[in-house]
């Protein structure tokens, strides 16, 4: 997911440099959404791993 956020950010930068402001704004919005979704899932999985829930519990045993 982070990979796609970076790809959309690069597309946004290139489109902005070439003057395609609509495409740049759209891809920047998508990149922002994907990044924050990645961040939220990362925090959730780290908390679950620290609590020992699911597969992390089996790995810690």
From TrEMBL:
Key words of the record: Cell membrane, Membrane, Transmembrane, Transmembrane helix
GO terms under cellular component: plasma membrane
TM regions (residue ranges): 7-27, 33-56
Transcription regulation among keywords: no
Pfam entry (one): DUF1328
Keyword Ligase: no
Domain of life: Bacteria
Family per similarity comment: Belongs to the UPF0391 family.
Protein name listed in UniProt: UPF0391 membrane protein DFR36_10119
């Amino acid at each position: 997911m982070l990979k796609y956020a970076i790809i959309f950010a690069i597309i946004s930068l290139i489109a902005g440099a070439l003057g395609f402001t609509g495409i740049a704004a759209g891809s920047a919005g998508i990149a922002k959404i994907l990044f924050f979704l990645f961040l939220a899932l990362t925090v959730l999985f780290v908390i679950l791993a620290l609590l020992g829930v699911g597969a992390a519990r089996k790995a810690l045993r």
